[in-house]
Amino acid sequence: MTDTSIIEIAATAHHPTPVDRLQLSAIVPDGFRAVLDLDRYVGQAVEAPLGDLIKLRASQLNGCSYCVDLHSVDLQNGGYPTRKVFAVSAWRESPWFSLRERTALELTEAVTLLPAGGVSEELYARSVAEFGEVDLANLILAIGTINLWNRIAVTTHQQPPAL
Length: 163
What we know:
Number of strands: 0
Helix content: over 70%
Distance between the termini: 31 Å
Mean pLDDT: 90
C-alpha cells in the first residue's frame, strides 16, 4: 500500500464522500415549496443583516457546511464586515456585536440547542424587551426555519459549491 492510499483511507474514514440522497424538491415539491415560502416570509420579516446572522449561527451549531457557506457569503456580499462574520462563532467574546445582535444570537443558540426547560424566562424577557412581540415572533420563526433547512441539508448531504 502506498503512502497516498493510506492518507486517502484515513481521510475518508472520518469524512466519507457524500452519497447521493433524496432531493426533496423533486420528490415532495409541495412540501419543499412550503418551506421555501416560510423562508421567504421570514427573509422579509426579519431585518437584514440580523436574519443572515442568526442563520449563520444556527448553521454553525448544527454543523451544516452548506448553510454556513451560504450565509457567510450572503453576509459578506451584503457588506457585513468579514472579521465580524468570522467572529460569529465566538460572539460572546467579541466586542463587535450590538445588544440587539447579542440577544438574537443568544436566542438562536437557546432555540437551536433547546436545553431542558426550553428558553429561560430571563432570556425570553430580554428578547421581548429588545424586539417587541411581533419582531420576536418573526425571529422565532426565522430560527425555526433555519434549523429545518439545516436538518434537510445535513440529512441529504447537500454540499456548498466548489471553491
